[in-house]
Design goal:
The chain has 207 residues and is mainly α. Helix content is 65%, strand content 4%. It has seven helices and two strands, in the order βαβαααααα. The protein has a two-stranded parallel sheet. Helix 4 (79-106) packs antiparallel against helix 5 (109-124) and helix 6 (129-140) crosses helix 7 (147-199). The longest helix has 53 residues, at 147-199. The protein is flat and about 70 Å long.
Length: 207
């Protein structure tokens, strides 16, 4: 007989979304990409007894900037998580872009919508608003779209996703440099040892 709170997660912020969620029996809703602090606050408010249930998530402003520091801040200051997600995205990005390009070339609106929607969610997690907007434009282009519009949208998407990739590679750069430094420190003594071995004659060797 206990009430189980239900939170809707939606990628849309359209007029009437809040009312539709509440009318369907939801206690509240959150906008994707989910912010950790916002999620925790919502769970705590719903789980606490004698606390009024929120009637809807407040609109979330756009993050300022999308550099490496902004990405880490967006993920709750967790640099390790940010680097892990950046690595996953950079690995998956070529495949996501190929799916969008194939759907665009085949003029398959449903495949294009699904592929662009997946990419939009991926870049939005990092706060890359221009890339997210470019993916949304591709997502909304249907079968009747002009070829010029498709080409323009595709060019814009490639440009913004490439810019996002530059930022994420910068985020991964410190860890890469640390690994290179460690490898260098390990290899240098080994080279000196090899040089000493060549200079020192072994048993039975010539002097």
């Amino acid at each position: 007989g206990r009430h189980i709170p239900i939170v809707a997660l939606t990628a849309h912020a359209m007029r009437g979304d809040r009312e539709r969620c509440l009318a369907a029996g939801m206690d509240t809703y959150l906008l994707k990409p989910i912010q950790r602090e916002e999620l925790f606050a919502t769970i705590e408010s719903l789980a606490a007894p004698a606390v009024s249930v929120p009637t809807g998530a407040a609109p979330r402003g756009a993050p300022e900037g999308a550099g490496p520091e902004a990405v880490v801040e967006r993920l709750g200051g967790d640099a390790k998580l940010a680097r892990e997600l950046a690595g996953i995205f950079l690995k998956d990005r070529p495949g996501m872009m190929r799916r969008i390009d194939r759907a665009r070339a085949a003029r398959d609106p449903e495949a294009l919508r699904m592929a662009a929607h997946a990419l939009k969610g991926a870049v939005a997690n990092f706060g890359f608003e221009a890339a997210s907007a470019a993916a949304l434009r591709m997502e909304r282009l249907g079968q009747d779209a002009d070829e010029a519009d498709l080409d323009e949208a595709w060019a814009g998407l490639k440009r913004e996703v490439a810019r996002a990739g530059v930022t994420l590679r910068k985020l991964l750069a410190p860890a890469t440099r640390r690994r290179a430094t460690v490898a260098s420190r390990v290899s240098k003594p080994s080279k000196r040892a090899d040089a000493r071995a060549r200079k020192s004659p072994g048993r039975g060797g010539r002097r």
